[in-house]
Amino acid sequence: MAKSKFDVYQHVTNEIIAQIEAGTPPWRKPWTGGGGGAHMPLRFNAKEYRGINVLMLWATASAKGYTSARWMTYRQAQELGGQVRKGEKSATVVKYGTIEKENEDGDEQRIPYCRAYRVFNADQIEGLADEFYIRPGPPRDLGTGPDPELEAFFARSGATIETSDQPRAFYDLRRDVIHMPPIATFHAAQGYYGTLAHELTHWTGADKRLERFKRFNDRKAYAFEELVAEIGACMLGVQIGVEPEFDQSAAYVEGWLQAMKDDKRAIFRAASEAQKAVDYITEKASREAPAAQVAA
C-alpha cells in the first residue's frame, strides 16, 4: 500500500483547530502562558520567523515551557557546537519556495511549493553560546495614563485616531478613522494600546493601503478579517511591548473554526495577511513623521 503524501496545510490547520477548540488559539499563547514577556521566534541566525511559523512556534514554546527565542535544525545546532539532548521532540515549521519545471510547450514555469521541516528550541540543546539562550524581558508596566513612546509610535503610523466618550473601539472604513474611548476608561494603559493595535491592523486593510478588504470580500470575509486583526495585534504587541486585548466572544471563535474547517489554507492566508499588516505599520512608524494626526 502506497504511503500517503504528507499534507502540510492540513497538518498545521488540524493542530491549530485543536488548540482553538481546547481554548487557546496559538497566537494568544505568548501572552497567556506565564508572567514573562513575549518575543518573536528567531532562526539560528537571529532572523525572525514570519507568518504561520510564528504561530506554530509560539504554540510549541508555550506547550513545552521553552523561554528562548532561538530555533534551529539538528544540523544547525551541531554546526554551532551544540547537541540536541536525547529524547527531545522537534517542532514543525514550513518553508515556501518555487521550483522551475518545463511545461508541455517547453517553457520554464515556476511552481510554488510548501514543505515541512523540523526545528528545536535552544532550550533543548546543550553547548550553544550564551547568546542563543535569549530570554524575553519582563512585561512593561504602562500604568494607567498615556505613554509618550507609544503615543508617538501610533502617531507615526499615519492613522487618524479619534477619541470620544462613545464606549466602543472600532475602525470606521467609510471615514478612514480609528475611534477609541478615552484611555482613562480602560483599567490600564495596556488595555488601551492593545485595543488600538487591533484597530490599527484593521486600518491597514483599506484600499489605499494593503487592499485587504477588496481582496477578501465574500460572505466569510468578516470572520477572516477579525482573525487577521487579532493575529496582527499579537505580532505587533511583541514589537512594541504591549499585551493585546482578546475578544472572547463565541461568535468570533466559531467563525474562525468554520473558516479553517472549510479551507485548510485559510489560517496560512490569515497569518500572511497579519504579517503584511504588521510590516506595513512598523515600516511607516520607523520613518520620521509629522506631528500626530489625532482628532479631538
From TrEMBL:
Record's keyword annotation contains tRNA-binding: no
Keywords linked to the UniProt accession: Nucleotidyltransferase, Transferase
InterPro entries attached to this UniProt entry: Antirestriction_ArdC, ArdC_N, MPTase-PolyVal
GO MF term set: nucleotidyltransferase activity; single-stranded DNA binding
Domain Polyvalent protein metallopeptidase: 149-272
Domain N-terminal: 7-120
Pfam families: ArdcN (PF08401), MPTase-PolyVal (PF18818)
EC number: 2.7.7.-
Protein name: DNA primase TraC
Organism in which the protein naturally occurs: Palleronia abyssalis
